[in-house]
Structures are given as structure tokens and as C-alpha cells.
């Protein structure tokens, strides 16, 4: 063998030796130790690399990369919020609910933005050396900062701006909002302002409308001048708004009245069905009467069968009893012929006991023995003949005794009848028929023997009682004394039942439709019915006039709906505008109105400016963050990467600020910021009133916002960020309302506290017969149900549709809600 070719025997022998096994075990342990040392070396090398990154840049590469990614991600919703706020604040028909929804979105995003900003500033050095520790610190900052920013923004605005405002400022804010609306409706024009309400609103027009209210609000002189013409402005504004929407209002009215006509068609069909049901009363009466006659016929047949069975049972007993009774009377006569009294009595007693035992065998009522005897009349000639024969045979003794008995008042031996017995079965049958009749009456349900004809059976009181009982089970109520001969009462009872059934079916059909109205109303009566007017009121909302009919043409609609609403709305606006300033103070009638107007006037421009600045700052900071990432990466590769000097960062920050706040105004503009524009007058007034910074900010906003807004809108159209937030906004909204109730629902001053009032809750949907439920209260939902103001979890479902669940917030000025499937 050579060194390269060992024998199998030698190899196996070496492998089995203890020394070889120890060597193999030692090799394994050595490999484990080497792997562990290598792993620790790698960890140490990584830790040293992180330490080097922290020493040079203050933060590790992974943390800076995470913050960079978060900044990029945050930029998208912030830009979307900026665009959404512009759409709402500069929208033509935006409501308070729209403004609140976008406000929630903005506060949520700003809380995230500030969290990222503070985390980037505060988390440095050892705090971010390890991943777990860094994420723990980040979570702690988020738990503190996000709620603080989310609720703090609202508190700051309410406390320092809204609640701190004066009655004059609130009234002025309301006027500025009215003027903004009048400008949109083209009811008022400002010379030099190139605004066309009929032109499609782009980002520039929306930005202009967002800040216009604030511009008017800041100009006391303009407000004073316009107050002199407020009545004329209001009347024209209300009329212009009403007439600009006339086609839409009449179109909605026309669509609804078509729906209402179809509802009346269904109602008329139901009325016809109801009338047919009432008209069927004679036919139903005949059917019931025929049924009663069949019942009588069946009862008569049953009675006859009962009589036949009874007679057969009686005859069977008579055939058994007849010979027994004949023998009994024979024996009793023999006992009577005995001369001795005691033996005679014993004979009678013995016969009587045997008789009693025999009778008990036949399951019949007890019958005294003499009841079986036959009364046989005795004629006078027979009495005389018998007396003569007996007198002759007794040699005149019997005749003498008769004379003596007659003299003392006796019958002189003359009898009018005698009792005899027989073995004729028919006789015993006749006796049993009478004696057992109570059993037959019980078996027949009260009928006696002897009814020979069906007519007698029909008019029998038992028949009437049984028929009456059956009729009661079918819902026909007749007097207890009613008989089958009284057809008129029967017909009346059937007519009453038919009406009750028709009424019940009618009420059930009306309940399913949510109505409560009688049948057979004319079209005019139908329209003016209370439930229909409530439905029209829900559809027409604030345009509703009582009563509103559904057959007006457009001229009548204008005359009876639009004109009264123009007058009412004008009066409402003027009541607010002409109210004393004390009415806008805390506890005043228009406190809530003034605060809402102030919020709509001041808050959107401020929020829009801050959001726009954050978007631009984030965009301009991203390149610097990217450069820092490259520097950290080079440091990790042992490449000379000197840390950016502080003065360089300061210079870059200065350039960024100039690029954001100076360049837009020097490089561009639009029709609203040119010096020859009428808006330039407003800016000059602000500067004169020591508000140069506010003037500059609004001018910057008018120039910069139209550039950025389309970008946020485009992002939202592709990523659906606002729709995603809407899907998760309800818990946030509920939390906000729970911890910080809406400003206009705050408690009034002690002198103006009001008792809690109930408000009507009405939920409208686009599917007829949809099921509506309020999930967070026990009472079952009914349209117009009275509930306290607050939030309600409403679920709408219908067969073939996806259920929708939504929170609604019941307020004095908002009681009708529409949830579409």
C-alpha cells in the first residue's frame, strides 16, 4: 500500500480509536470559537463604523436614511393637504363640514411633520446608536408630540384668535364672508379685480377667494363704506344666488315630483286594492254562509248517525232485558200470592236485590221496576161487568161492600187503570229510549232525541251556538243570542271583518313605506298630507315652504318657492348684519355665527401659508439631506469626507429661505398681485395699519400657492390620499369631539345657559326600503326621531347593496343627513 491508498481495514480501525474521536470533537469546538470570534469581530467592526459615523456626522447612516425616506413620504400628504385646503377655502359652495374635514386632515399631517422634525433634531449620538433604542425614542416622541400638535393647534386657534376676538371683529368677519359670497355670485364687483365667477376656477382663482375674506376683513374703511349699502348688496346677492341655482333647484324639484307621482301611483293602486277588498264583502259573506250551511249539514248527518247508533244500542239492551223483566214480574206475582207476611217480604227483597244486580250489568241509569210496567186503562163497562160477576159469585157480599165503600167516599172497587207487564222487546226499547236520553244528549253535544227534520236541527239553539263558536275562531264576532235565522247580522259581521283585514293590510303597507295616511286621497289631498309634506321638506331642505305642492311649473315654482326664500334669506342676513355688536359677544344670539365666520376668514390663509412653507422647505431640504447621506456613506468607506461647516449650512439655509419667500415675488405674479390691480389697494391699507408682514405674506401666498396647488392635486388624483384619510377619519374625528368639543357647541355663559333640547334626526338614502339603524342608541330608528345633539353611528343597508356605516353629528342647524348606498 502507498500513502495515498490506505486499506479499508486500517481506516475503520483508526476512526474507532478514542484519540481520533477527541481530535474530531476538538476541531468542531475550534470552528465554533472561530465563528463566534468572527461574528463578534463583525459586530465590533459595525459598531466602530457606526461610532465613526456618529463622531463625524452626529447620526448613523441608517437613521439619516430613515429620516430622509420619512421626509419624502411626509411631503406627499402635506402637499395634498395644501391643495385640498385651497379647494375648500377657495371653493364656491364649500360648507363648514368640508372645512372641518380638511382641518382634521391638516392637523393629523402637521402632527406627523412636527414629530419627524423633532425626532430629526433631538435624536443624535448614543440615542440612535442602536436600532431598538432609536425606535423606542422615536415612539416616545411620537406619543408626546403628535397629540400635543393635533390638539394644541385647535386650542391655540380657539383660545388666542376665536375666543379672544371682539364682537366688532366677529361682525366684520361675517360681513367679509358675505361679501366674498356676493363676489362669487357676481352680485358685487370691485373695479380692477379681474375675477369672473363664470370662468372655471383654477388654482389662482381659488387662492384669491381663500384670501379675499381676510383682505376685506383687514380693511376697516372698506367695511364702513359697504355697511351703508349692505341692504342693497344683500338683496342682490341673495337673488343672484337663488337665480343662478334656479335651474338646478327646479330640476331637483322636477325630479322629485316625478318620484312623488310614481309614489302616488303606487298609493292609488293600494287604494284600489283596498276598495276591492271592501267591495268583496258580499262575496265573502256568501262564502262564509255557505261554509256555515255545510257545517249545519255535517252536524245533521252526524246527529242522524248518532240517533241510529243510539237506537241500535238501546235495542240490543232491550232484547237482553225483556225476558229478564218478564221473568222478574212473574216471580213477583208469585211472591204476592203468598199468604204469610214475612215470607212474602223476604221473597220481594230477594227479587229486588236480583233486579238491582241485573240492571247494573247494562251501564244504564237506574230504572225502578214499576217503570217497566204498562198502564192499561179500564173502561166503565168492564168495571160494572166485573162487579156484577163478582157480586153473583159472592152471593151479593161484594156488592154490599162496594156500596159501603162508596158511602164512605171510596171508589167502590172501580179502577181506571191497571199495571201489566209484557215480554215485547219494543216496549222495553221505548222505555230505554226515554230513560237513556241524557246519555244521548251528552254524546250529541246537547241535542235531544226526536229532531225529525234538518230545518228543525238548523234553527235549534245548540246549532246556532256551535256555528257562532266556529265563526268566532274565524274572526266573525256575533252576539251570543245570534241564530242562523238572522242573516243580516251575519252579513254585518263579515263586512266588519273584511274592513278590519283591509285596514290592517293598508297600515302594514304604509308602515313599510314610512307613511301613515288614510286610503282614497286625491292627488291634491295626497300632496298636502303630513307625511308627504315631511318628505318634501327633507328633499327641499331650506327651500321648503309650507305647503309645497308637486305640480307647479317653473313660473309657479319661482313665485311660491324662490321668491319667499329670497325674502326670508335676505331678512336673515340683514338681521345678522344689522344686529347690535353685543349680539356677537359671548353668550349673544350670533356668537356662534360670528366665530364661525371669523374661523372661515382667518384660519384658512394662515393654515395655507404654513402648509405651503412646510412643503417648500421640505422640498429644498431634501437635496441637503441627500448630500449628507453621501457624506456618511463615504465616511463608512474610509473616504475623506469632511463634515459640512456650520457657516455653509447657514448659508444654504439662507439661500433656501430667499428662494422660498423672496424669489416668487420678484420673479412672477398674477392678475391679483400686479400694482395696477385693485387688490394692491388692500395691501397698501394693511401696510398703513402696521400689518406689512401680513400684507407681504398674503401677497406671497397669492403668487406661490397657484404654482404648488396643482402638484398636490395631481398627487392626490394618483395616490388617493384624501380618500384613504376619509376611510380612517371617523375614529380621529370622534376622539377630537370627545376631548375638545366643537367650538360652537361650547357652554354659554351662566346667564345664557339653556336646557338641553332634542333635535329631529332624519337619514335619507337613495334606495327605497333601505334599513336604517343607529348603532350607539337603544331606540329603533324612525325618521324625525328626537335625540340630543351629538354624534350618532348610523348604518344603512339594503338587499343587493354593500352596507354603509357612518358617523353623523346632530346639531341645531344640521338635522338631515344623506347616506348613499
List the helices and strands and how they pair.
Blueprint: H1 8-15, H2 18-57, H3 61-89, H4 96-122, H5 131-162, H6 167-184, H7 203-218, H8 220-227, H9 230-244, H10 246-279, H11 281-337, H12 341-360, E1 374-377, H13 380-393, H14 397-407, E2 417-420, H15 425-435, H16 437-443, H17 454-458, H18 461-473, H19 487-512, H20 523-528, H21 530-540, H22 554-577, H23 591-636, H24 646-661, H25 663-667, H26 679-688, H27 692-719, H28 721-739, E3 758-764, E4 771-774, E5 785-788, E6 790-797, E7 804-810, E8 816-818
Parallel strand pairs: 3-8
Antiparallel strand pairs: 1-2, 3-5, 4-6, 6-7
Helix pairs in contact: 2-23, 3-4, 3-23, 3-27, 4-5, 4-23, 6-7, 6-9, 6-23, 7-23, 7-27, 9-22, 10-19, 11-12, 11-15, 11-19, 13-14, 23-24, 23-27, 26-27
Question: Strand portion, in percent?
Answer: under 5%
Number of helices: 28
Number of strands: 8
| Sheet/helix structural class | mainly alpha
Q: What Rg, in angstroms, do the CA atoms define?
A: 55 Å
Q: Level of helix content?
A: 55-70%
Give a verbal description of the structure.
The protein is mainly alpha-helical and 821 residues long. It folds into six domains: 8-51; 58-243 and 578-744, no CATH class; 247-279 and 486-550, no CATH class; 299-374 and 417-473, no CATH class; 379-415, no CATH class; 755-818, no CATH class. Helix content is 68%, strand content 5%. It has 28 helices and eight strands. The strands form three sheets. Strands 5-3-8 form a three-stranded mixed sheet, with no helix packed on it. The chain has a three-stranded antiparallel sheet with strand order 4-6-7, with no helix packed on it. A hairpin with a 6-residue loop joins strand 6 (790-797) and strand 7. Helix 4 packs parallel to helix 23 (591-636) and helix 6 packs across helix 9. The longest helix has 57 residues, at 281-337. The model is unreliable at 744-756 (pLDDT under 50).
Amino acid at each position: 500500500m502507498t500513502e495515498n491508498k490506505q486499506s479499508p481495514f486500517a481506516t475503520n480501525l483508526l476512526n474507532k480509536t478514542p484519540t481520533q474521536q477527541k481530535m474530531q470533537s476538538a476541531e468542531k469546538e475550534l470552528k465554533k470559537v472561530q465563528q463566534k470570534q468572527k461574528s463578534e469581530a463583525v459586530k465590533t467592526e459595525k459598531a466602530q463604523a457606526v461610532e465613526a459615523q456618529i463622531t463625524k456626522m452626529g447620526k448613523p447612516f441608517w437613521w439619516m436614511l430613515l429620516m430622509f425616506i420619512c421626509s419624502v413620504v411626509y411631503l406627499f400628504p402635506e402637499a395634498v393637504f395644501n391643495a385640498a385646503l385651497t379647494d375648500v377655502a377657495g371653493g364656491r359652495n364649500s360648507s363648514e363640514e368640508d372645512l372641518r374635514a380638511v382641518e382634521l386632515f391638516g392637523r393629523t399631517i402637521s402632527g406627523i411633520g412636527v414629530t419627524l422634525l423633532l425626532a430629526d433634531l433631538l435624536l443624535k449620538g448614543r440615542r440612535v446608536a442602536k436600532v431598538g433604542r432609536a425606535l423606542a425614542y422615536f415612539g416616545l416622541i411620537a406619543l408626546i408630540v403628535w397629540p400635543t400638535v393635533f390638539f394644541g393647534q385647535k386650542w391655540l386657534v380657539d383660545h388666542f384668535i376665536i375666543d379672544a376676538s371682539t364682537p366688532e371683529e366677529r361682525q366684520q368677519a361675517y360681513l367679509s364672508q358675505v361679501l366674498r359670497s356676493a363676489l362669487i355670485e357676481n352680485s358685487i364687483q370691485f373695479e380692477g379685480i379681474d375675477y369672473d365667477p363664470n370662468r372655471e376656477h383654477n388654482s389662482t382663482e381659488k387662492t384669491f377667494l381663500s384670501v379675499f375674506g381676510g383682505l376685506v376683513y383687514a380693511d376697516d374703511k372698506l367695511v364702513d363704506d359697504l355697511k351703508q349699502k349692505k341692504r342693497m348688496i344683500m338683496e342682490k346677492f341673495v337673488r343672484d344666488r337663488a337665480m343662478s341655482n334656479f335651474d338646478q333647484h327646479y330640476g331637483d324639484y322636477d325630479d322629485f315630483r316625478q318620484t312623488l307621482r310614481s309614489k302616488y301611483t303606487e298609493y292609488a293602486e293600494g287604494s284600489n286594492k283596498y276598495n276591492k277588498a271592501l267591495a268583496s264583502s258580499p262575496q265573502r259573506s256568501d262564502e262564509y254562509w255557505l261554509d256555515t250551511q255545510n257545517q249545519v249539514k255535517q252536524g245533521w248527518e252526524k246527529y242522524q248517525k248518532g240517533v241510529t247508533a243510539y237506537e241500535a244500542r238501546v235495542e240490543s239492551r232491550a232484547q237482553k232485558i225483556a225476558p229478564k223483566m218478564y221473568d222478574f214480574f212473574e216471580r213477583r206475582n208469585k211472591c204476592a200470592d203468598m199468604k204469610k207476611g214475612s215470607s212474602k217480604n223476604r221473597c220481594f227483597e230477594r227479587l229486588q236485590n236480583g233486579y238491582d244486580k241485573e240492571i247494573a250489568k247494562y251501564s244504564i241509569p237506574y230504572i225502578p221496576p214499576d217503570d217497566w210496567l204498562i198502564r192499561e186503562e179500564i173502561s166503565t163497562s168492564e168495571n160494572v161487568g166485573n162487579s156484577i160477576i163478582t157480586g153473583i159469585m159472592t152471593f151479593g157480599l161484594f156488592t154490599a161492600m162496594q156500596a159501603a165503600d162508596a158511602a164512605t167516599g171510596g171508589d167502590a172497587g172501580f179502577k181506571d187503570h191497571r199495571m201489566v207487564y209484557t215480554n215485547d222487546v219494543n216496549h222495553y226499547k221505548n222505555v230505554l229510549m226515554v230513560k237513556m236520553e241524557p246519555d244521548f244528549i251528552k254524546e250529541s253535544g246537547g241535542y235531544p232525541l226526536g229532531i225529525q227534520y234538518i230545518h228543525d236541527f238548523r234553527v235549534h239553539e245548540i246549532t246556532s251556538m256551535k256555528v257562532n263558536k266556529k265563526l268566532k275562531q274565524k274572526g266573525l264576532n256575533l252576539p251570543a243570542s245570534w241564530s242562523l235565522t238572522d242573516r243580516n247580522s251575519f252579513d254585518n259581521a263579515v263586512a266588519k271583518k273584511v274592513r278590519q283585514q283591509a285596514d290592517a293590510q293598508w297600515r302594514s303597507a304604509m308602515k313599510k313605506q314610512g307613511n301613515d295616511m288614510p286610503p282614497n286621497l286625491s292627488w291634491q289631498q295626497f300632496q298636502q298630507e303630513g307625511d308627504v309634506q315631511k318628505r318634501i321638506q327633507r328633499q327641499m331642505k331650506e327651500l321648503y315652504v309650507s305647503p309645497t305642492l308637486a305640480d307647479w311649473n317653473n313660473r309657479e315654482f319661482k313665485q311660491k318657492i324662490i321668491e319667499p326664500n329670497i325674502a326670508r334669506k335676505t331678512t336673515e342676513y340683514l338681521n345678522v348684519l344689522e344686529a347690535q355688536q353685543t349680539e356677537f359677544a359671548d353668550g349673544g344670539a350670533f356668537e356662534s355665527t360670528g366665530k364661525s365666520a371669523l374661523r372661515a376668514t382667518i384660519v384658512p390663509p394662515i393654515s395655507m401659508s404654513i402648509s405651503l412653507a412646510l412643503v417648500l422647505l421640505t422640498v429644498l431640504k431634501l437635496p441637503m439631506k441627500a448630500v449628507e447621506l453621501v457624506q456618511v456613506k463615504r465616511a463608512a468607506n474610509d473616504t475623506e469626507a469632511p463634515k459640512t461647516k456650520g457657516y455653509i449650512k447657514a448659508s444654504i439655509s439662507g439661500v433656501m429661505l430667499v428662494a422660498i419667500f423672496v424669489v416668487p415675488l420678484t420673479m412672477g405674479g398674477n392678475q391679483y398681485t400686479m400694482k395696477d390691480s385693485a387688490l394692491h389697494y388692500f395691501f397698501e391699507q394693511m401696510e398703513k395699519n402696521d400689518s406689512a408682514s401680513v400684507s407681504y405674506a398674503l401677497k406671497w401666498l397669492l403668487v406661490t400657492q397657484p404654482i404648488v396647488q396643482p402638484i398636490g392635486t395631481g398627487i392626490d388624483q394618483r395616490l388617493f390620499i384624501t380618500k384613504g384619510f376619509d376611510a380612517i377619519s371617523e375614529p380621529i374625528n370622534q376622539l377630537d369631539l370627545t376631548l375638545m368639543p366643537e367650538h360652537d357647541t361650547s357652554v354659554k355663559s351662566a346667564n345664557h345657559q339653556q336646557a338641553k333640547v332634542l333635535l329631529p334626526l332624519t337619514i335619507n338614502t337613495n334606495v327605497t326600503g333601505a334599513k336604517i339603524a343607529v348603532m350607539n342608541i337603544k331606540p329603533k330608528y324612525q325618521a324625525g326621531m328626537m335625540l340630543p345633539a351629538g354624534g350618532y353611528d348610523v348604518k344603512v343597508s339594503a338587499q343587493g347593496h354593500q352596507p354603509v356605516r357612518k358617523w353623523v353629528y346632530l346639531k341645531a342647524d344640521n338635522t338631515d343627513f344623506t347616506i348613499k348606498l
